[in-house]
Amino acid sequence: MRAIYKKEVCGFFRSMLGYLYIAFMLLVAGIFFTAFNLQGGVPEFGYVLGNTTVVLLVVIPVITMRTLGEEQRQKTDQLLFTAPVTVSSVVLGKFFAVVTVFAMPLIVLLACPLILAQYGTVPLLQSYSCFVAFVLMGAACISIGMFVSSLTEHQILAAVGTFAVLLVSYLINGMRGLIGAAALNSLAGFALMVLAAG
What we know:
It contains 11 helices and no strands. It has about 200 residues and is mostly helical. Helix 4 runs antiparallel to helix 10.
């Protein structure tokens, strides 16, 4: 599992994908930090992370679209399955690699509540617990993205499918009032059936 983890993390930074992801997340979080905390005077950093979760709809499909589908497309999944590691080790190695890349911009953002604390009273425990919640939410979204990526070998189809599932997940509470629960359950079952067939 450790070798797969290292290979996947290095793979993100051999291409531009890892660097672009980190720069994009820091840019978006910096804009929200400036708007809410510096100009708006809000002491909680959770507002920044709460608004950044919308960006996960775009970045999670991009960073997960190649995790398992690329192995199928290049036929290297045969090598992984015949290697002396279990399938769960392969999946967990890839999962933890994507979560590591996902959490890298947060290392820089950890300094933001401390910067705010130099100029006023900041609830540090609440701010840092928001970081933990953000990582856990990102891990849940990554698991959805990897599942969709395992269903198809086409990267674009995996990205669009992940985006669709995450969008429905984000909007599910609002959709419940518009349509009945039975229709919503049948719609979710139909979407999973279409993804499995594709």
